[in-house]
Amino acid sequence: MLKVQKAGVIGAGTMGAAIAEVLAYNEIPIVLKDVNDELVSKGIQRIRSILSDLVRFNDGKADKEIARIEAEGVKLTEDQKASLRARMKSKFTSEKADELLARVKGTTSYSDFSDVDLVVEAAFENVSVKRGVFEELDKVLPDRAILGSNTSSLSITGLAKGLKHTPNTLITHFFNPPYMLPLVEIVGGADTKDEVTADVIGFLLGLKNHRSNLVPIKVKEVPGFVVNRLLIPMLNEACFSLDEGSASPRDIDAAMKSGAGMPMGPLELADMIGLDVCLDVINILNREYGDPKYRPAQTLKRKVEAGHLGRKSGKGFYDYP
Ligand SMILES: NC(=O)c1ccc[n+]([C@@H]2O[C@H](COP(=O)([O-])OP(=O)(O)OC[C@H]3O[C@@H](n4cnc5c(N)ncnc54)[C@H](O)[C@@H]3O)[C@@H](O)[C@H]2O)c1
């Protein structure tokens, strides 16, 4: 059974900082690396802000419950409110948040990784950046260490080729944000040892994020793994449907929410993911599977060309003033 007494995360950006937070939330000491002090501090600041949102959310739970009860016409006494607040008092206090932060050590040096049991690499989605990180880690990691990459699209077989740690290398694909979404797709490469995959799945099964236990699943090394392979073509198909004039964006989204039980409509979701990211992924699927069913819809291409990338640019299928 894999025991992780200390873990490392490479890249203190959107995913790296949040993955570090999840690991530290499970009481694992973390070393978090980025390329300079400013980016490391930004990553730590990201974790601080995830934690203050969590504390605020938990602190507000009792008052939300009181408001819900009173909205149903029941008037609670001050004693009843106080007892509800005491019963619903959050276990995750700001002291806990401070303890968690103290478990995360920021660094710009690989030498801090000489005693970690597991590393998750979450640097840029670029093959030479990731390969460079793997080669540096290969020099300093203890032999037993497992090296996971958060890559969404690169081949782990290629990234890990010819290293001392090749048999201990695999993809650990977390979803954004990992403190809310529990899925982790686990993908071994051609030379990954089966017991390493099994150990990592066993380890992740014992962890939780802010909402639930993590849900690791084993996936073959195929483009898009499971989620992007199914989700992105569906979002692209919604764009085709829009191009054909089947319905308005709002009605397409309403249809999939009210008729297919989706919590968000496909076009809203595409705006949230980023239309450039959606286009990149569908292009990768198109190239890798060589099947025209993955060709990108015109609307998607034109929006990206215009810089209308969704929420992050203030405009996509909807406006975000
Ligand atoms: N953002 C998402 O929704 C999402 C979801 C799943 C997977 N991913 C994958 O996660 C990885 C990271 O994505 P992100 O969105 O967090 O990117 P990001 O740009 O927010 O962060 C990447 C960080 O890596 C740092 N970095 C680059 N080279 C480094 C090096 N040599 N050493 C240390 N740090 C280095 C950068 O300075 C940056 O802070 C990518 O592989 C991406 O495909 C992203």
Model description:
- With 321 residues, the chain is of the alpha/beta class.
- The chain has 2 domains: 168 residues, 3-Layer(aba) Sandwich (Rossmann fold); 84 residues, Orthogonal Bundle (N-(1-d-carboxylethyl)-l-norvaline Dehydrogenase, domain 2), CATH 1.10.1040.50.
- The chain is built from 12 helices and 8 strands.
- An 8-stranded mixed β-sheet has the order 3-2-1-4-5-6-7-8, sandwiched between helices.
- Helix 1 crosses helix 2 and helix 8 packs across helix 11.
- The chain is globular and about 70 Å long.
- Bound molecules: nicotinamide-adenine-dinucleotide.
- The site of nicotinamide-adenine-dinucleotide has 22 residues, from helix 1 and helix 5.
Which structural category fits the helices and strands?
alpha/beta
Strand order of the largest sheet: 3-2-1-4-5-6-7-8
Rg, rounded, reads: 22 Å
CATH class of the largest domain: Alpha Beta
Tell the overall outline.
globular
SSE pattern: EHEHHHEEHEHEEHEHHHHH
CATH topology of the largest domain: Rossmann fold
> DSSP helix count?
12
CATH superfamily of the largest domain: NAD(P)-binding Rossmann-like Domain
Helix content: 40-55%
